């Protein structure tokens, strides 16, 4: 079994993940809480870390079964083959989501610097800093092709 990237309709990530879990698939849809402001109020909203994507641990034989779920569109392909996400990167995404606001370090982080994420309680070993701004940094997950924004002190 391997972790595949399932593309969903916009704003359907959580619904697709819930329905796939009900069908007994192993699914990863990490989320974060964001404060959204309207003209009359502020509200905490749960949003996915990966927009329009759900990670699913599935065999090649079961790949077609996910399209019975409303909102599932297609699989992500890379160089003509289904994109496979390493388990350690899926675990990293789950750790980031579980800890809500992950504080990495009080040291200065520079662009291009490779940082050891195990020191901060995450199971993934390394990430590369792409951009630093104020108290935030963007860490590259190379095999997934995504950048995750983390809050630092």
Task: Give your account of this protein's structure.
The chain has two helices and 13 strands, in the order βαββββββββαββββ. It has 153 residues and is mainly beta. A hairpin with a 2-residue loop joins β7 (77-78) and β8. The radius of gyration is 17 Å and the shape is globular. The strands form four sheets. Strands 1, 2, 5, 6 and 9 form a five-stranded antiparallel β-sheet that branches. It has a four-stranded antiparallel β-sheet with strand order 10-11-12-13, with no helix packed on it. It comes from Gelidibacter algens.
How would you summarize what this structure contains?
It contains two helices and 13 strands, in the order βαββββββββαββββ. The chain has 153 residues and is mainly β. The strands form four sheets. Strands 1, 2, 5, 6 and 9 form a five-stranded antiparallel beta sheet that branches. A four-stranded antiparallel beta sheet has the order 10-11-12-13, with no helix packed on it.
CATH H-tier superfamily of the largest domain? NusG, N-terminal domain
Oligomer: single chain
- Give the CATH topology of the largest domain: Alpha-Beta Plaits
Contiguous low-pLDDT stretches (5 residues minimum) are 101-107
Order of secondary-structure elements: EHEEEEEEEEHEEEE
Brief descriptors of the model:
153 residues; mainly beta; Alpha-Beta Plaits; SH3 type barrels; 2 domains; 5-stranded antiparallel β-sheet; 4-stranded antiparallel β-sheet; 13 strands; 41% strand; globular
